[in-house]
Known about the structure:
Layout: E1 2-9, H1 13-24, E2 30-33, H2 42-45, H3 76-89, E3 96-97, E4 102-108, E5 113-118, E6 121-130, E7 152-155, E8 169-173, H4 177-186, E9 192-196, E10 203-204, H5 213-219, H6 222-237, H7 239-245, H8 247-264, H9 268-273, E11 286-287, H10 291-295, E12 300-303, E13 309-312, E14 316-319, E15 324-326, E16 329-332, E17 347-348, H11 355-358, E18 377-379, H12 392-413, E19 418-420, H13 422-436, H14 440-443, H15 465-472, E20 480-482
Parallel strand pairs: 1-2, 1-6, 2-3, 4-17, 6-18, 7-16, 8-9, 8-16, 9-12, 10-11
Antiparallel strand pairs: 4-5, 5-6, 13-14, 14-15, 19-20
Helix pairs in contact: 1-12, 7-8, 12-15
Amino acid sequence: MQTFKVLIIxxxxxxxxAAINLLKAGIEDFRLLERRDFFGGTWCQNTYPGAAVxxxxxxxxxxxxxxxxxxxxxxQAELQRYTEYxxxxxxxxxxxxxxxxxxxxxxxxxxxxxxxxxxxxxxxAQFLINATGPLSQPVVPRFEGQERFKGKTFHTNQWDHAxxxxxxxxxxxxxxxxxxxxxxxxxxxxxxxxxxxxxPHWVLPRADRRFGRFQRWLLGLKPAYKLLRWMIYWQFETRxxxxxxxxxxxxxxxxxxxGFLKRQVADPELRRKLTPDYAIGCKxxxxxxxxxxxxxxxxxxxxxxxxGIARIDESGIVTSDGQHIDLDLIVWSTGYDATDGVIxxxxxxxxxxxxxxxWAQYPRAYLGTSLPGFPNLFIVTGPNTGIGHxxxxxxxxxxxxxxxxxxxxxxxxxxxxxxxxxxxxxxxTEMIHREMERTVWKSGGCHSWYHSKSGHVIAMFPGFxxxxxxxTRALKPADHxxx
Length: 483
């Protein structure tokens, strides 16, 4: 059994940020456990055509790792290069165990350690940081006859680049953020493209631009980079006013989105299918200037809910209105288990308490990060840490303040474990869901992946990101049990 002070599960930006902060704190006795055979997470895994970030690149980056981006909204290849730059710049390559799938973890109360069972043996550590991320478990819905289909199928998260989709008959099931990027990328190259949409999404234009040589040089200067980040940050932060505090602001943005739809889609029937019946922001807003034109192409057909999938057979899809569609490829763009399944492996805390039982009603955590009865366990991008208006990396860096403060406090006091008090977690969770009632995510008239099966909004933080940063800035000893 290999023993470390800290184990980090996952090697995406959350795991990298945790590792770098440990190194800055003088802690080198740690390992990242990565189930795949490569280091890097989301932007090394999601390589589907058209993949790109939907937050401006200078903000969607680590504050301590500026980069000379080539465009405002970086595409997947550049995001992968940035990921590799971070890994190499901070010397993380030797700190990862690849092809190490975590199967279960257990708290050993006698030794105050976590025991981690993996596909490559057992590890143990005083501290455990789960950084698997909420968008790591792809979901593929079940349909009658699905296993009979003789064509090709895969999820956008596992795009098969060996398969040539050109001049093929293709269906994309789903119409969310990934589909909105795939559709414009492949539509010009396929024979027919059938898009199955359960619910339309609000779409706003993408204000992308390429940076010139001088602008890229400026991005390499930390003061200029920091200034641009903060300008973008405060511009995006104002969106919370609409999401939570101002119905007139929502209506204004919604009118802008309707105007954009009208300008880009001339066909009134297609426009009807693409018009949501819920408030903008209730579901994830798509940022794209190419989606609507792609859906209007002569070789693209949009199937709304009333023309949805009834069953699948050997040669394609049978729709609920009786149409048979012959297909060569079905692409599942159906998202992830991002709420109830935020941690996919079994977790056993004190007294063999199972995390999945604690979360049976709905996932919850103090600061979205720690739980009563699970000492020295920290969840990066845990329940209610999602942010619909700005960069997730800002939240991840905020969480690191709290996590490193917990670890540092134990070291200073010569103690071995820390866990949040049940009453502190309960007070925090009640505050989160009380504040959530005022948001468009709760009252906007839709059901999205932001919700758990219980109906609670689990994915989002109901306020400004700087409010969350303030909450995580320093450990509150009174909220914790230290021993």
